[in-house]
Amino acid sequence: MRPSKVFHHLIVVFMLLASPLWGQHRFLRAIESQHWSSLASHMDRRVEICVDDRVEILPAQRALHRLKELVQRIQPIQVQPLHSGSSQNKRSYYVIGKIKSKKGPYRVMLFVHRQGGREVIQEIRMEKM
Q1: Which domain holds residue 10?
Q2: In this structure, what are the phi and psi dihedrals at residue 23, rounded to the nearest 5 degrees?
Q3: How far is the C-alpha of 26 from the C-alpha of 34, rounded, in Å?
Q4: What radius of gyration do the chain's Cα atoms show?
Q5: Does the reported pTM lie above 0.90?
Q6: Are 98 and 113 spatial neighbours (Cβ–Cβ below 8 Å)?
Q7: 60, 45 Cβ separation under 8 angstroms
Q8: Which of 38, 39, 48, 58 gives 62 a disulfide partner, CB atoms 3.0 to 4.6 angstroms apart?
Q9: Where do the H-state alpha helices sit in the chain?
Q10: Residue 21's pLDDT is what?
């Protein structure tokens, strides 16, 4: 096999293996880039949002607004994915990341459920590290 074909096959295999991870971490990248519309389109009707020890169950738009306020206040510099995992039946997963911000480090966790062919954010947790 020619070297260029081998390289091409390696790229395809890498992309196939990395794509589930890419999909799971896209929500962390949306927080880092403050791309609120991409998060809004994936919010469940009601979202549990927990900031430090304060837990609220809010309509999607209010939960997004609360997240937006917090992110703008802490001024993130970088969001680094730390860990992710999925349920045994692959219907839900979680993503944990570390936010490096001007106000110090934060941990963020998102719980996502797959419903009717789409991914729905059901829970967002942020806490100062």
Answers
A1: 3-128
A2: -65, -45
A3: 12
A4: 17
A5: no
A6: no
A7: yes
A8: 58
A9: 3-33, 36-40, 60-74
A10: 42
**Residue 60: HSE in the Cβ half-sphere, 13 Å Cα cutoff:** 13
SS3 33: helix
The tally of domains found in the chain comes to 1
Residue from 58, 69, 83 nearest 36 by CA: 69
- What pLDDT, on the 0 to 100 scale, is given for residue 18? 38
Query: What is the per-residue pLDDT across 82-120, written as a single tens digit (0 to 9) for each?
Result: 989 988 888 899 999 999 999 999 999 999 999 888 899
| Residue (of 44, 22, 48, 37) closest to 109 by Cα position | 48
Residue 105, both tokens: 């480090």
Where would I find the H helices in 34-114?
A: 36-40, 60-74
**3-state DSSP assignment of residue 102:** coil
Three-state DSSP state, 126: strand
Nearest to 44 by CA among 123, 124, 121, 125: 121
The CA–CA distances, whole Å, from 113 to 29, 51, 68, 86 equal 18, 20, 21, 10
